[in-house]
Amino acid sequence: MNKTDTKKNRQRRSLLLLFSGVVLIFLLVTTALVGVVVFFLIQNGALELSETSLSNGPLLLRLLLWSLAIGSVLAFLTLRFPLKPINKILNALNRLAAGDYSVRLKFRGAFSKHPTVAELTDCFNRMATELEKTEMLRSDFVNNFSHEFKTPIVSIAGFAKLLRRGNLPKEREEEYLQIIEEESLRLSQMATNVLNLTRVENQTILTEESEYNLSEQLRNCVLVLENKWNKKHIEFSLPEEEYFIFANEELMKQVWINLIENAVKFSPEYEMVSVEVSKNDKTLSASVTNVGDEIPEEAREKIFNKFYQADESHATEGNGVGLAVVKRIVDLHGGSVRVDCAQGKTTFTVVLPRTRLR
CA–CA separation, 357 vs 133, rounded Å? Predict the structure, then answer.
């Protein structure tokens, strides 16, 4: 246990002692008041401490009822103060569970200054903020995904209906069949991305690692996407040197395909996409650079969040899942991924620790 954890445990114990002290004070005050009442009754002759007085049932019953009444009033007046923050927390949790993610905890007075209370407040508010952001992203994802999913389905249904009518020139039939094939592959890719994200999110341990040729893998990923970059007449600059890496080959393939596909997607026609690899004593870095519109600075921290799309106009294909898959896979490998924009170029860089190099 480190010093920070020890300090937090000490602060939490102090808060527990504070509540225990309040309860102890309540018991002592109740006992003192009952003692005062008994003393007052004895002084006024209403109660005699003798064997005959002990057998005086009605008097003892009245004394018991008075004790209960005094204790109840004191309990109401005393315990509602320490219980008030607990009730506030419970109410906030109930609102959060009911879907009200705008709720925030805020205490006042000396109680709010206690380190444990401040920690509890901060943790709760950060949790509510993250849940609110996730809910917004989920809502946006449903809208975006519905839009992206509906478009190819409508295209497939429309062109299939035209083909069914027949009496079309051969060239037109080939064109319609090609569109149906492309839109079907687009649907398949969207479903694959969502399934991949679900799979890697549930994965906590990296398995099936092996040493393989990273440069060859990058070249193969470019070939897989040939149909997409060939349409835009895009050229590639690839590393000439052979680099080897120790990682999960199948997972890393998803990283490169997503990054290269993104670069192609946002590149204008007849441009160059550059794929570079370098290494030093501690890390290996692989970067994918494309020319095109820069990602807005306020969006750069969000693009790796699942379901987030920097392009909200739907002018480009995508559902905000690919980069989230990239981030999760790189995290599993103990690395990092970042985006840099400058002079009309966007560069995604994946950095893996030297321990995974061979």
Answer: 37
Q: How far is CA 196 from the centre of its chain?
A: 17
Sequence spans of domains, the chain: 3-100, 145-201, 210-356
Q: Is the dihedral of CA 114, 115, 117, 118 positive or negative?
A: positive
Tokens of 164: 């069914």
Q: With contact defined as beta carbons under 8 Å apart, do 266 and 292 qualify?
A: yes
pLDDT exceeds 60 at position 15? no
Given a cut of 50, whether residue 97 has pLDDT beyond it is yes
d(CA 136, CA 69): 52
What kind of fold does domain 210-356 have according to CATH? Heat Shock Protein 90 (3.30.565)
Give the residue among 143, 140, 152, 139 at the shortest CA–CA distance from 317.
152
Asked if the domains 145-201 and 210-356 are classified in one and the same CATH topology, the answer is no
* DSSP states along 26-62: HHHHHHHHHHHHHHHHHHTTS---SHHHHT-HHHHHH
Architecture of domain 145-201: Orthogonal Bundle (1.10)
- The secondary structure of residue 316, as a DSSP letter, is S
Tell me the pLDDT tens digit for each residue of 37-96. 666 766 776 655 554 444 555 655 665 666 666 666 666 665 556 567 777 888 888 888
For the chain, state the CA radius of gyration. 34
